[in-house]
Structures are given as C-alpha cells and as structure tokens.
Amino acid sequence: MASHSHQRGIYGWALYDWANSAFSTTVMAGFFPVFFKQVWNAGEPVALSTFRLGLANSLASLVVMLAAPLIGAMADQLGYRKGALLIFAALGILMTGALAWIQAGHWELAALTYALAVIGFSGSNLFYDALLVYIAPLRDSDRVSALGFALGYLGGGLLFSLNLVMAWQPEWFGLADRDAAVRAAFLSVAVWWVVFSLPLLLWVHEPQPPSRPTWGASLSRGGRQLVRTLREIRALPEAFIFLLAYWFYIDGVGTIIRMAVDYGLSLGFPDTSLVTALLITQFVGFPATLVFGRLGGLMGTRNAIYLALGLYMLITLWGAFMSAVWEFYLLATAVGLVQGGVQALSRSLFARLIPLRQSAELFGFYNMLGKFAAVLGPLLMGTVVLVTGSPRVGIVSVLLLFGIGVWLLSRVDIERGEQRVNAGT
C-alpha cells in the first residue's frame, strides 16, 4: 500500500511539469509575444513593443529572483513547500486566464498581467523542485526528475499543437476568428494547468516539521539560512565562479527562448510560421538532451558545454543576418538540439564542485539562477532595439551574455574544485 502511495506521489509530482509547461510553450514563447505586438501594441513602432516585452520579462524574472531565496527558506522552515507551490500556481493560472479578457491597445494591463503570470509560474517551479527530495529517494532522483522533464516537453507540446490548430482553423472550434482563438488558447492553458495540478494536490504528501515556527520566526530563520548559503558559496571559489558563468550564459539561453517570436515578427515573418518553429524546438529538445549527456562523457562536461554555447553563439549570429522563414525553422531545430544539453550538463558540472552535505541548499541557489534567468537579456535586447531601431543589432547584443559566460567558465579550475570537495573542505 505504501509502495502504491509512493508511486502515486511520484506521478502526481511529475504531472505538475505536464501542467505548467503549457504556460511556457503556448503563452511565454508562443502566443503572448505575437498578441502583445499585434493586438495590445497595435499601431506602435516595432522597436517600442520589443522594448516593452523585454521589460516585462526582465522585471518579472527579477522580482522572483530577488524574492525566491527568502520565500524558499521560509517555506523550508514552515514545511509549506506544497502550499507555497499551489499559491504561486493559483496566481499564474488566474493571470493567464485574465489575458483572454484584455482588450486591444491596453499594453500596460497586458504587460502587468503577463508579468504576474510569469511570477506565478516561476515561483511555483521553485517549490516544485524543492519537493523532489521528499517524493523520490536519492538513488531514484535522476529518474524521477527526468520523468518530470519528459512529461513537461510532451504536455507543453501537445496543448501547444492543439492551440496552433485553433489559431489556424478557428471555425473548427466554433470560434469567430484568430483573435478569439488565441484568447481561447490562453483560457485553455489556465484550465490545463488547473486540471493537471490536481494529482499533485491530492497525491503528494509533504512531511511536516515536528514543531512549526511562527511566520515571524520563519522569516528570521529563513534570512539567516539565506546568509549562510551565500557564505557557503563564497567559501567554494570554483563553484562560485561557475555560478557566475552559469548566470550569464543561461540568461542568454532564456532570452533567445522568450524573445525569438518577437524578433521574427520584427523581421516581418508570418506569426504562424514562427509559433510552428517553437514546436520543432519542443519535440527535438528531449532526445537531444540525452545525446548531450553522452557527449559529456565522451569529450568532457565543460567541453560539451563549450560546444553547446558555441552553437548558441552561431545561432545568434545567423539570426542577425537571416532573411527567410526556412532559416528560422533551421535555427529552431538548432536551439532544440542544444537547449536541454546546456541545462543538463551544467547541473552535472555544478554537482562535482559542491560538497554532498550542502547539496540541497546550494542546488536551491543554482536552480534559482536557472529557473529565473532572463533578467539581463530581454532588457538588454529591448533597450538596444529601442536605441538603434534595429532588431538585428538587438539580437547580436545577446552575444555579450554568452561571451562573458564562456570566459567565466574557462576560469573555473574543475580539478581543484573536485579536490576541495573530496578533501571535505
């Protein structure tokens, strides 16, 4: 009976990735950039709408990035990880549904609602990660984590496929036009998110602390825990430099994902072609990640990360000069090939640079940087486009993030970091 309950907890946890990945595909990467530029910023200069989208993405990421460590530490103290996940998920769900009702021209309301939805999505992911250690023993954590990862790719891709059909053939669904279909797609994401969060609500059980502190005490303890984590990272120089490198290059990765459709629209490509390209990235991503995992073993983890980042830099450069839609499809395939690989190999390398006894706290910090990346890039790209009036110059600016990340990664002394960890310091 306990085994059956344990398995249900694993599936309930993994299905949350299936639930909320619909937001990252249909809303964040797919339809929101299109609707934001064409409907909520109708008649505005292309460069201005790009800047506004970049600002909304950056501010949402920054809010969560600054608040997450303290909120996470408080949830640890209170034993409310699942509760905190559901609160953030509720915010994301309500704001995603609200996007369907915002009228044309109201870009300020659309940007605020979207930013709140991103905060809900990103915040819930923080606590989703934190629950893994409670629903899977250490020996099974990689397998269970991969199950969630796989279901996220599949779930997000499936609903996005349906949403694309809705946008292309609205009459099949009894919808008046494409405008109505995209609004219905926002609602479908909210419903999908609710329905597939229910297994986590019902099946995942989080052990409660023997004594629960007051909210004030948890805030104080959480603050001390955060300070301790920061001190521990600074005491591990190789891990610290790696985290800096990771923050820069993963910010570049996040920027490409979030701003790609807006960039394609700025070049005059059809929106239907652009969102279709995202499906390619989605379905190429999962098997390609497994391949990169093998590459890390064959050529060394850091060299494989260099390879992936080198491809990202080529993708960025090619993107600055592309002039045909087929090139966008090809670049979407290339992003799919390297996106998951960068994430998986970076996690693997970081694990080698930290002591096992501190892995939970330090990985919490690492996950925060990874989940909430896209603070610098969207703002950088949007500002450059606004100043220069050129989307092509804007996309080139993202190379700066990759370049700094690669340089910092080259400064990490992996052997010394592993020796330090093995020596127990």
Automatic annotation (TrEMBL):
GO cellular component, one term: endomembrane system
Lipid bilayer topology: Multi-pass membrane protein
ATP-binding keyword on record: no
Assigned keywords, A-Z: Membrane, Transmembrane, Transmembrane helix, Transport
Xref: InterPro entries: Atg22-like (IPR024671), ATG22/LtaA_families (IPR050495), MFS_dom (IPR020846), MFS_trans_sf (IPR036259)
Record field: transmembrane: 12-35, 55-72, 84-102, 114-135, 147-168, 180-204, 239-261, 273-292, 304-322, 328-350, 362-387, 393-410
A Pfam short name: ATG22
Location(s) in or outside the cell: Endomembrane system
Residue span(s) of domain Major facilitator superfamily (MFS) profile: 10-415
Transmembrane as UniProt keyword: yes
GO molecular function, one term: transmembrane transporter activity
PANTHER family hit by this protein: AUTOPHAGY-RELATED PROTEIN 22
Full protein name: Permease
Gene source species: Thiohalobacter thiocyanaticus
